[in-house]
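Now for one record.
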Amino acid sequence: MTDQQEIWRPFKELSPEEQQLFLERVGEPQREYEPIHPGSGTNWRNIGRKIWAPFVAVGAFLLKFGAIFFKLNFVVVALSMIVSIGGYTLLWGWQFGLGFVLLIFCHEMGHVLEAKRQGLPVTAPLFIPFLGAMITMKEMPHNAWREAQVALAGPLVGSLAAAGCWAIGWYTDSNFWRALAFAGFFINLFNLIPLVPLDGGRAAAALHPLVWALGLAALVGLAFYRPNPFLVLILFLGGLEVSRRWRTRHDAAMQAYYHVKPGQRVAVAVVYLGLAAALVLGMAATQVPH
């Protein structure tokens, strides 16, 4: 029992007149607690809303778009992207790694969109750390002209994405965005080497088979100048594919496949060479001095 309680214990035994006199001499009893104010304490309802709000939003998003994502094997794509981002993060940090993977994603989505425009069944991009990404077409285009369109759509969209990074770098005067643009221009230019399975090799199918020989020679020289296991792998796969296509060049089905109208051949050449030149200029403009 506290001192205050001890003083006030006999208070009830006094008469009203004595209580009034006592209060005048001693004063009102002091409170030993803080009054409860409305709204004080923890608002568990608001906290609950904040915790569940993101889950509700994600759930609503999946209900609306989940069918599309799962149709494109979204989980597999997302996991392969995360692994690739982790790999590139070890080299360049997470920000550049994320940007680099997104540039590759834009490149691959160019292929996907053009393939779907042609009505071809195609998988979503599958990312392979340090090797880029790939899509798989369950059905080849009807002819070399359409194959070239699918092939060039990737570098075209990828180059536009890199140009967007360049624009941001110019506007913000940021070397980070310039370096990211340079990397985007480079990977799209590399893919234009005229050797299957690179995009340039598939575009060259609409030009002339001898272009593959030029691409093979260029890649051999690059492999000797800058030895790299990735280049050796491309050479191996490209050599096998060129050999297969060369052996079957006299088949009636293959001759029909490679029959390309002169106007279509010119269009492929203009887009191919023009894009290659633009990418070289883009790399020169975005090169960040060390």
Notes: The beta strands are 126-128, 132-134. The longest strand covers residues 126-128. The radius of gyration is 35 Å. The chain is about 70% helix and 0% strand.
